[in-house]
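Handout, page 2. Input:
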Amino acid sequence: MNEQLILASASPRRKELLDQIGVSYIVHTVDVDETPKVGEFAIDYVVRIAAEKSAVCLNELHGTLPILAADTSVVIDGHILGKPRDKADALSMLKQLSGKTHTVYSAVSLRCKGSSSEFQHFQVLSKTEVQFRQITTKEMHNYWATGEPQGKAGGYAIQGLASIFVESITGSFSGVVGLPLFETAQLLFKQGINILHE
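Output:
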């Protein structure tokens, strides 16, 4: 198979989403500092982190294939909820999300060679509103015990057991999972990377 791009991510969810739309890729994991800057707005943060991931990947590989990176953040009341450090942190996040609407931003960064053979940078951003029902304390503890919240932004996986907490969603489901497929496909298509190609 001729790979169409490099995925700068270790996320199994992003790999599954690219598989879903038939994109062939090579995985190259990168390590960036994901600490928000003081006073940084959530939108600026998620766009910056996605861009840094693709930039680091390009710097490490010096290849010719396009590089795709993404970052997803769960935001409530202006606060970014990262990946829970431990059970107490995860329970705190679920309590904040319970019975409320939160926003999920998912930024996609694509670096690919232009006509001048220099790498150009393109980005898109998806915004999704997710409404959670009230979650009981017992449910929160039981959910943590499944292991699913670990390593997930906001302490939950919408495509998993946490789906039972979701009352409604307005926007991109795949964006909440980790890679907004509509926006990603549009970005790839504009740069000549076809999804439904012969």
